[in-house]
Amino acid sequence: MQKAGPSTSVTVPLVPSDGLADDVHGLVTASQDSNGNFHYRRSGIRMKTMSEPVLVIEDLQAGTGGAAPILRGVSLTVAAGEVHVLMGPNGSGKSTLAKTLLASPNYEVTSGRVLFKGEDITALSTEERAQRGLFLGFQHPEEFAGVTVLNFLRQAMSARKGFDMSVLEVRLALMDWMKRLSVDPKFMDRYLNDGFSGGEKKRSEVLQLALLEPDMAILDETDSGLDIDALRVVSEGINEVRRERPEMGVLLITHYQRILRYLTPDVVHIFVGGRIVESGGLEIAERLEGEGYEAFRGAEVSP
Question: Domain residues of the chain, as ranges?
Fold first, then answer.
């Protein structure tokens, strides 16, 4: 074999193998030394992920009408498959944001817009947003005496898919997911959230998340009222749904860092005074744990 000189090199495109978390593309330079050995060096060129945004919030302002706005210019972009965590103190407007994204009649959007999969949904109703694949997990799920989990999910799944699903179809799908989430099969015949413990209500939300197959999940304080064991079970359930639907975007709203032991975010946002005041990685959540929200309140008055 003829050996090449020390300066021989070739540059080729780099396409990451399946499973690379950063989804980075770039260039690799392959050089051959005088002994015929090849050496590879990745260039510093990086390209943006190919994932399209599933949810875009642009300068959103909203309130209860007449009073000062609760949301004061919220902007946020969640790409397909990403997990964003929104952390803020009580009264900062986190739940207002979640409910506004699902078109709650209690809140009025005064400016800005919401894009979902490229479509402006700002003027759409709750039902229309849900049909398109937007899901809200409530902080305090409502109780529905007389409506079983099975019947509720049949109606919700039929509305989501656009055709009537049979009881048998829904029962089989529900049994499969209850097995995967370690939920007692008797759960499906109980009245929705009626007499449920806090952990059972959140498991019910995860079942809905699994069966409704949304493209974007907004989870409002899923960890609220859960002990450490229930939190682990619910978090594992959310991760199981994400494994089934890896392109689903997630916006997780919470007070505390503890749920981040089980759900790893791509981005952490600090939300104070009706707006995002800082964004970054897990280091922000760790700083919050040590310094509290007071460390971020100075940014609340920033434009």
Answer: 8-42, 54-301
Query: Which pLDDT belongs to residue 6?
Result: 45
Q: Which of 215, 221, 250 is nearest to 134 (CA)?
A: 215
Q: Render 144-173 in DSSP notation, one character per residue.
A: EEEEEHHHHHHHHHHHHHTSPPPHHHHHHH
For the chain, the average pLDDT equals 83
pLDDT, tens digit, for every residue of 98-150?
999 999 999 999 999 999 999 999 999 999 999 999 999 988 888 899 999 99
Q: How confident is the model at residue 282 (pLDDT cuts 50, 70, 90)?
A: very high
3-state secondary structure 63-110: ECCCCCCCEEEEEEEEECCCEEEEECCCCCCHHHHHHHHCCCCCCEEE
pLDDT of residue 299: 58
Q: Residue 263's Cα: distance from chain center in Å?
A: 10
- CA-nearest of 136, 143, 137 to 196 is 143
What pTM was estimated for this model as a whole? 0.80
- Rounded to a whole number, what is the largest CA-CA distance in the chain? 82
Convert the pLDDT of each residue in 169-209 to its tens digit. 999 999 999 999 988 898 899 999 899 888 888 889 999 99
> Could you tell me the two tokens for 291?
């310094």
- The size of the chain, in residues, is 303
Q: How confident is the model at residue 41 (pLDDT cuts 50, 70, 90)?
A: very low
CB atoms within 10 A of CB 160: 19
Query: In the CATH hierarchy, which fold is given to the domain comprising 54-301?
Result: Rossmann fold (3.40.50)
Nearest to 225 by CA among 141, 114, 159: 141
